[in-house]
Amino acid sequence: MDFDLTQVSLTSIITVVGSTGVLSALCTHLFGMFRDWLEDRTKRARRASYAALRLAVQLETYAIECARRIEEVKTSLASNGYYGKLHGRLPKIPPYPDEIDWKSLEPSLVDEVLSFPNQLLVSNDITTFVAEDHFPDDTELATAECLLHCGYRGVQAWKIATELRKRYGLKSRNVLSDSWNMLQCLEVEEAKYHDQQRIWREWKDKNFAAPDK
What is the reported pTM? Predict the structure, then answer.
């Protein structure tokens, strides 16, 4: 008698497969794959959270150093050099930790974090040029660019740190005190920086605009 596949029901197939242990082995294999995937996903999430925390703390520390530098310069100028300290460069940012798993983080955030030191190099070129050009004859003008860029880059570092904490569910840290509002100190100079850039763009557009055809 010919074997008719149309007469074979799904139930009979499952019964045969189950009786031979194939179904049990398949389920065990699939469960193992799911368990490994879940464990790997958990480990990646932990690595990402750890990396985000390390980077956020480092960037927050840098923002604080920028604010401290602003206060030191302003104190020195106000006291005619008796207190505080003059600066013509931004603070140095330490190298990022070697153990950071960059691939576990979002590419857009990695781009911001890794690009930040290069942006500091550009700012330092500007502040150093101005400082060397005017010091010691005009200490206020010599340190003016340093104040602006400290504010701008300090706020930038703080914002990146905030993005890292928010994206990976980390608690925000309040580093402000009743006697000193670090973030406000940065934002005042950042606003001046943007005003300066706006004035420069307007002057450039006015004096170097393409002639009408």
Answer: 0.79
